[in-house]
Amino acid sequence: MALVDTATHDDAPKSFFTRYVWSQDHKVIAVQYAGTAIAVGLVGLLLSNLMRLQIGFPGVFEFINAERYYQFVTMHGMIMVIYLLTALFLGGFGNYLIPLMIGARDMVFPYMNMLSFWVYLLSVLVLMTSFFVPGGATGAGWTLYPPQAILPGTPGHEWGIILMLVSLLIFIVATTMGGLNYVTTVLQARCEGMTLLRMPLSVWGIFVATVLALLAFPALFVSGVMMLLDKTLGTSFFMPALLSMGQASDYKGGSPLLFQHLFWFFGHPEVYIVALPAFGIVSDLISVHARKAIFGYRTMVWAIVIIGGLSFVVWAHHMFVSGMNPWFGFFFATSTLIIAVPTAIKVYNWVLTLWRGDIHLSVPMLFTLAFILTFLSGGLTGLFLGNVSVDIPLSGTYFVVAHFHMVMGVAPLLVVFGAITHWFPCITGRMLDERLGRFHFWVTFIGTYLIYFPMHYLGVLGMPRRYHEYANYDFIPASAHSLNAFITVVALFVGAAQLVFVYNLVRSALHGRPAGSNPWRAASLEWATPQVPPQHGNWGATLPVAYRWAYAYSVPGARQDFIAQNAPLQDGGVEPQAPSKPAPGREAAR
Amino acid sequence: MAIAIALLLIVLGSVAFHVVTPWWSTPLASNWGAMDDTMTVTVIVTGIFFVVINLFVVYTLWRFRHRRDARAAYEPENKRLERWLIGVTTVGIVALLAPGLVVYARFVDPPQEAMQLEVLGQQWQWRFRLPGADGAMGGSDVRFVSGDNPFGLDPSDPKAQDDVLIGANEVHLPLGQPVKVLLRSHDALHDFFVPNFRARMNIVPGQVSWFWFTPTRTGRFEAMCAQLCGVGHPAMRGFVVVDDAAAYQAWLQQQPTFAMTLAKVPAGAPGSAQDLLARGRDLAQSKGCVACHTVDGRSGVGPTWKGLYGKTETFADGSTALVDEAYLRGFIRDPKARNVKGFPPVMPQIELAGDELDALVAYIIAQSDRRPQR
């Protein structure tokens, strides 16, 4: 951590363009990333509501024909997983929080950081273009399984699939540029005293998620390139000898299952690329708003690392009924259920952090509590699907849809809302409107539970997902169709409530109540900058020094109920040491 | 405190919903009751964790809500408690995994005496094949597929000759006889899913996947495709009828072998009008037209045939044409030439002999109230 601190106020950009458009400041890039992700996320939200209209009221909205329905399904899934959640957690929160929380002036490669955003924006534009090309966007499902993804019979097989793959490749370039930056910054640019085991868990979650992204996205990249070659040059990486719309094709010898292995080798870590930052951020929100040190910090760090490692050896639980060698099922069911142990520990530790806390039911805390319930629900249903013989009848049904929306859709988004509410004062200097925030919270939390909890039961019944209509199936009772109509109505309300959130963002950024320098009385460094919101270079003349961890809340004997990470050593609150080592910090705390 | 009450109501409501839900597994009709049992174990174990953890949160929120001058405790860790929690969780996980793997060990080990049933998936229809008297399936390859050989069987393979072919979407199975289902696809991924049987598997072109089950109840069960296979995915329906032994034999006797379908001479003799329509209906089934075209007015992947003849069709480019006999013949012969507005341009070119086309067109015309004027 021997850093030469070169930042001076002189290098701050002067013109509007260099400050807000071609900006190399991590805080501006974070807002650019987040703004783009939220905008594209609203498109994904609209698509989901259109889908729900067709499922709830089949045939009423004639423009949602089968072709469009599958295009909506596909684009909704890909937008939400990649272009919203991945971009928002890594490009948005990663960019904003990492340098501030570890006491750095910026990312170590600011120019590459700027490029990362613009390349990401390009990938979004290419993706959106695919709605307007002949044949429309691809309707292959977000998993883009070949052979059908590139064959007639699937909507958008002409240009939509090509633009989708190209957009993904561009996105991966952006993620790689950003990711290398985040990892290097965490490893090289921490301020004095900021040991790895003093970093806030938000940074740990984003850091490990970024490592996963760097290792997992290449698998998607190569499969994207291979499918593009299959589509455009007629190679047969994923294409066996087959009929295309009843006619013989020139493909032969390829393996559709190879794509599935590559896709899920990326796809499962991707779940944790979204989940780990959420885990980390939630830990910090709980600690701040319950005024209590996070329970079992070291265990939390190790749980993040172990979950990250295990996430690379569970991918084929997405493929239990794919037609792969069925003997793989034993290994992947076992590895999948093992990953439940560190995940459960994280839940226990969040809950135990609340225990004997001083719980402030602020909006971020409400979202955190909602996250715990939602994540617990989605995590537990994961035990159904990870256990291979329970998965067999449930695979491909609405049980799966309900599970993954709970665990990696709604749960991380609840964290996003909580986190934005929490850090909005740091970003803008103003508070989000509390009344609008609470309204948005209640509609979103209760609404999503009403949507997804009963949906599991449709899956147990056997309702398959990705059906444009369910006419004349005798095993599906009329009551199930009524339930679908109910879910659709709730989904429309939840969708509308998100507009309230966006309105709140805009209004509060302009007219919100001034927040002061540390409205939540948090201990971590992002609130300890000389100016709030932090200016270019973050730290003014001198870099901060970390004397303790970020969780010195309600330390006995301390003057107030938190001790900032950079407060002088004699204020106490140093983290507990590993038992095998001498504990100088503890001495200092007394 | 609204949040504590809300969490409490969600927990109680979820448990109550689970008790009274009208939506649960379809009635079991196979030997895989053990899958239902492992699911029951999973519901109980996960349900306990869900209720206990959430109620703990509710109590904590109520007990430790912010009060003036209150201060949180300082307890950064408690190794003993953490070890206990890891232990309890591990026991819970083992209790879930162990029975699951025991059941799975049976799933990957089909009984020796199982009969074979081939399920052939093709966009967007099902066909079935049984091995015939020699008990062995003949070889197959998509390059053999033709109008006369929709299964793509190897005509030179002696084992294929007695294979029993079911060209429609309904197959019968004998009660109590273990079945090893061999799954083959001509084109895209599919998945043969009969909810009542529980067991199922994806179908992957270029390979043969399998699963096994034993039907334990007679009846007619709905089968469907459960792996997105293109725009006609929901139209890919089938039925499995489980018969007692006598009824099964009676059905089996009526099914043609591969040799019989090859030998079938194209009907040259002019039949009655009724024969022509019956033949057209059979062709609509066997060529898979019905996967996309209904005769009851519902809109499928393609336009319904009900009332199609005599109406004016609009195309994607805005032009229109009267649907007459020449239109129908031309469209079937070259489906790519024009795109009907509102429908995906995915209709395949299907090989039809001249008299087959006559029969099919006659059948389509018969679905309309308007009659050709001759």
How many individual helices of chain B?
9
The strand count of chain A comes to 2
Order of helices and strands of chain B: HHHEEHEEEEEEEEHHHEEHH
Give the helix level of chain A as a range of percent: 55-70%
| Class from secondary-structure proportions of chain A | mainly alpha
How far apart, in Å, are the first and last alpha carbons of chain B?
A: 81 Å
The parts of chain A where pLDDT drops under 50 for at least 5 residues are: 581-590
Major β-sheet annotation of chain A:
2 strands, antiparallel
- Rg from alpha-carbon coordinates of chain B: 28 Å
Rg of chain A, alpha carbons = 24 Å
* Helical segment count of chain A: 16
Oligomer: heterodimer
Q: Could you say which overall geometry of chain B the principal axes of the C-alpha atoms support?
A: extended
What is the strand content of chain B?
15-25%
Global outline of chain A: globular
Distance separating the two termini of chain A: 28 Å
Question: Mean pLDDT of chain B, as a whole number?
Answer: 90
Order of helices and strands of chain A: HHHHHHEEHHHHHHHHHH
Strand order of the largest sheet of chain A: 1-2
Can you give the mean pLDDT of chain A? 93
**Major sheet details of chain B:** 5 strands, mixed
Your description of this structure?
The complex is a heterodimer of chains A (590) and B (374). Chain A has 590 residues and is an all-alpha fold. In chain A, 61% of the residues lie in helices and 1% in strands. Chain A contains 16 helices and two strands. Chain A has helices at 16-21, 26-56, 66-102, 110-129, 160-188, 201-232, 256-289, 297-310, 328-338, 340-354, 363-386, 388-394, 398-428, 434-461, 478-511, 584-589, and strands at 243-244, 247-248. Chain A has a two-stranded antiparallel ribbon. In chain A, strand 1 (243-244) and strand 2 (247-248) form a beta hairpin. In chain A, helix 3 runs antiparallel to helix 6 (201-232) and helix 7 runs antiparallel to helix 11. Chain A is globular and about 80 Å long. By secondary structure, chain B is an alpha+beta fold. Chain B has helices spanning 2-20, 33-63, 79-107, 158-161, 245-253, 258-263, 273-286, 325-333, 354-366, and strands at 115-122, 125-130, 164-166, 170-174, 179-185, 190-193, 200-203, 209-213, 219-225, 237-243, 312-314, 320-322. In chain B, the strands form three sheets. Chain B has a five-stranded mixed β-sheet with strand order 3-2-1-5-8, with no helix packed on it. Chain B has a five-stranded mixed β-sheet with strand order 4-10-9-6-7. In chain B, strands 11-12 form a two-stranded antiparallel ribbon. Chain B starts with a helix and ends in an 8-residue tail after the last helix. The mean pLDDT of chain B is 90. At the A-B interface, helix 3, strand 1, strand 2, helix 8 and helix 9 of A face helix 1, helix 2, helix 3, strand 7 and strand 9 of B.
